Amino acid sequence: MTRVLIVGAGPAGIRAAAELAGAGLRPVVVDEGARAGGQIYRRPPEMFSRPAKVLYGSEAGKAGALHGLFDALLAEDRVDYLPNRTVVGLSDGVAHLVGPEIGERCTFDRLILATGAMDRVAPVPGWQAAGVYTLGAAQIALKAQGVALGRRIVLAGSGPLLTLVAAQLLKAGADVAAVLDTAPLATQMRGGLKMALARPGVTARGLMLRARLGRRFRAGVSLERIETGPSGPKALHWYDAAGRSHTTTCDTVALGWHLRAETALADLAGSAFDWSETWAQWLPRTDVEGRAADGLYLAGDGLRILGADGAELAGRVAARACLADLGLSTDPAAQSRDLKRLRKMRRFAEGVASAFPWPAQMVRDLPDETVLCRCEGVTAGELRDTVPLSGPDANRVKSLGRVGMGRCQGRYCQLAAAELISETTRLSSAEVGRLRAQPPVRPAPVAALVSDHDED
Amino acid sequence: MSRVNAAGEKGRLIRLAESDRAPLPFYLDGVERQAMQGDTVLTAVLLSAGGLRSAEFGLEKRAGFCLMGACQDCWMWQEDGPRIRACSTPLKAGMRLLTDPPKTWPGELP
Questions:
Q1: Helix (H), strand (E), coil (C) string for chain A
Q2: A/B interface, count of CB pairs below 8 Å
Q3: pTM: predicted TM-score of the whole model, two decimal places
Q4: Taking 90 as the threshold, does the pLDDT of residue A205 lie above it?
Q5: Which CATH number is A4-118+260-330's, of 3.40.50.1110, 1.20.1250.20, 3.40.190.80, 3.50.50.60?
Q6: Which pLDDT belongs to residue A446?
Q7: Residues of A with CB below 8 A from B82's CB?
Q8: Is B50 close to A232, i.e. CB distance below 8 A?
Q9: Between chains, do B14 and A407 touch, taking CB under 8 Å as contact?
Q10: What ipTM does this complex have?
Q11: A172 CA to chain B: closest CA distance, Å?
Q12: A49 vs B47: CB contact, 8 Å cut-off?
């Protein structure tokens, strides 16, 4: 039987698995998590007791349906589920895993990547301190562990997650001192109009959450710096929309400017990429059904940041494309219905992207002493000094200046680095180019690579 | 549970929910501490300490960043055995964790 490997068990991966299993295949699902669900519908450990309504709010029904769907596939033994494992490399028809067993491999005929997204973060002076986190981290801590990341938290950035995390933390009893959105209100309203036209209900829910934040929420701010001491943040210094200076005391800061697609495996698998002006990041190139190359399919936020609802649709659509390519029967009516829904999700998501933009000017204005690469402490000034020697290509700047060469492999610095290269050279981000992904795409113990070698 | 550890350092995290789970003892830098079943290593350590490790390229401590296995900020040492990614590793009873490399590291090459 044809072996289809699905990487990721969030909304896209679960829907893809169900679609393949429904057609009689037995997909293999590799998941970094311990329990299927992904990040937004992440499940706490088994011994936790909060009900879904508390964990997922208005999305509890969807989360429960997805978890139930995957649990049923497992109970009926219709998928091979490999949790707690990361695909760190891909060679011809073989995925190399890091997990509980050393040197584990998984062969496949076709590959569906549903690798999701991470916070898109911009550097703020002081962000290297312990106690500065991503917005996603604040949400994961609350949802999966029942903890707040600090006693007095400032959330800053832009995007739907900013409002959502703030509302969730407040509801759970955390002290949220301020919620600072760098997107000006007028920008948010223009994008919000597109959002409301595509999905009025979702847009209204977001506005209701925003209303709960009260005067903590400020739009159109610019972030000056995180004041830090030996134990971490002490205050966030920021300017309001009128340019007045403010200081908010805190012991924790969480940052995020919407999301960035996790594309390392798509890169290794041979997908082409395009710079997206809409999402201000490099995104894989596929056809409308998610085909990126022969036998390679992409779905979910790792392809386009459409959110969980869009990811469910994209997972089904990519799985049907895979089935059709295998010559197996699919439901063309269901496929065109899902593609139509997906177009609506995309219109909404484009509204979100324009309402909550990447803070390009804030990054360009970073003082030279700002740490740009959190992993290795490379500063903005060091990067600016590197560019005249390396030239503008992002990969050459990385080789010479080390921005993107640390443990996160450029996941949290490469967009800011491209912005600064672009500022220095007057080239566009598209011309600066994209950091190529390198295997292993996550740190791997040497033993994993040695045992691979021994078998050859 | 005390929120101030032996060094007088306050824990970074606070529990907001799920606080009726079974206790789970572990060691941080040789000192016994209590956490709960279902805590990750990151949660357990940061409930009583301000950081997981020292930064290699700066003076600050590190306490994790993304909590989803993407940033690699939260790798911790153990007295024995491999380094572990604190955000995605469940705490086990009796784990012996270190905020700095063991004194024997990196050792001598043969």
A1: CCCEEEECCCHHHHHHHHHHHHCCCCCEEECCCCCCCCCCCCCCCCCCCCCHHHHHHHHHHHHHHHHHHHHHHHHCCCCEEECCCEEEEEECCEEEEECCCCCCEEECCEEEECCCEEECCCCCCCCCCCCEEEHHHHHHHHHHHCEECCCCEEEEEECHHHHHHHHHHHHHCCCEEEEEECCCHHHHHHHHHHHHHHCHHHHHHHHHHHHHCHHHEEECCEEEEEEEECCEEEEEEEECCCCCEEEEECCEEEEEECEEECCHHHHHCCCCEEEECCCCEEEECCCCCCEEECCEEECHHHCCCCHHHHHHHHHHHHHHHHHHHCCCCCCHHHHHHHHHHHHHHHHHHHHHHHHCCCCHHHHHCCCCCCEEECCCCEEHHHHHHHHHHHCCCHHHHHHHHCCCCCCCCCCCCHHHHHHHHHHHHCCCHHHHCCCCCCCCCCCCCHHHHHHHHHHC
A2: 140
A3: 0.96
A4: yes
A5: 3.50.50.60
A6: 80
A7: 445
A8: yes
A9: no
A10: 0.96
A11: 7
A12: no
